[in-house]
Amino acid sequence: MSIHDTGPPERERRFADLFTATYPAVLRFAERRVHPSHAEDVAAEVFVVAWRRLDDVPAHVDDARAWLFGIARLTLMASIRGERRRQALAVRVSEDPTAHGHVADLDPDLVARRVDLARAWSRLSAAHQEALALTVWDGLDAPRAAQVLGISPVAYRLRLSRARKALRAHAKALPQTPASRAVPATPRGSST
Fold first, then answer.
1. b/e map of 149-165 (b: 16 or more CB within 10 Å)?
2. How far apart are CA 160 and CA 131, in angstroms?
3. What is the pLDDT of residue 90?
4. What local confidence, expressed as pLDDT, does residue 56 receive?
5. Do 146 and 153 contact (CB within 8 A), yes or no?
6. Angle at 160 between CA 159 and CA 162, to 5 degrees
7. Is the dihedral angle over the CA atoms 87, 92, 94, 97 positive or is it negative?
8. Do residues 141 and 156 make contact, with C-beta atoms less than 8 angstroms apart?
9. Where are the domains of the chain?
């Protein structure tokens, strides 16, 4: 049997024949590899590619099915890469507290504070890291940061407040470094 045996190659008819002949197999292929709730989405993406590249689909139904399985596999791999990229988007403080200067040029107290901050930062959730980073490093106000995250400005402000509180709590829970044990400087204008 051939998908292209229907006479003149009308695009819609060819696609309908391809879909009818192969959709159940493509769906089963996806169901064996992802959660059943995602399998239909994978199959749909496969057939979007098939529609766009209909001229590349092999004529014989078994060859077409194998070709579609290859597209499904690539779709699944792209999904996995996308998930890894989303996880990699978690904002990180440099592990090396001296990355922005030479060790000899840095104040030891500043280095110790950076180490403490990096440790506290690593204990934050990805959501808290992102909320802090959008405001502190990216300079976004609450409405714009909320837009980036797809939440309301009120929800963003709440998340930012919780993130700040969590960062302070994690910083306080760390073992004290010499810089953090130092006696605070006397406020200006006061006498000792």
1. eeeeeeebbebbeebee
2. 5
3. 58
4. 95
5. yes
6. 65
7. negative
8. no
9. 11-88, 103-180
Place of tokens 């470094």: 177
In the block, tokens 């590349």 appear at: 56
Based on DSSP, count helices (H) and strands (E) in the chain, helices before strands.
8, 0
Residue type, 7: G
Point out which residues pair with 26 in neighbouring strands.
none
Q: Report the length, in residues, of the chain.
A: 192
How does DSSP classify residue 54?
A: G
163 touches 170 (CB < 8 A): no
Could you report the average pLDDT of every consecutive run of 10 residues in the chain (192 residues)? Answer: 54 95 93 90 96 94 90 90 70 51 61 76 86 86 88 94 91 63 43 41
What token pair was written down for 128? 């808290």
- At 6, which amino acid appears? T
At the topology level, CATH places domain 103-180 in Arc Repressor Mutant, subunit A (1.10.10)
Q: What class does CATH assign to 11-88? A: mainly alpha
Are 134 and 146 a contacting pair, CB within 8 Å? Answer: no
Lookup result for tokens 């904002």: 91
For residue 175, the 8-state DSSP code is: P
CB-based contact 43:99 (threshold 8 Å):
no
Q: Tokens at residue 171, please?
A: 């910083």
Phi, psi of 60 (to 5 degrees): -80, 135
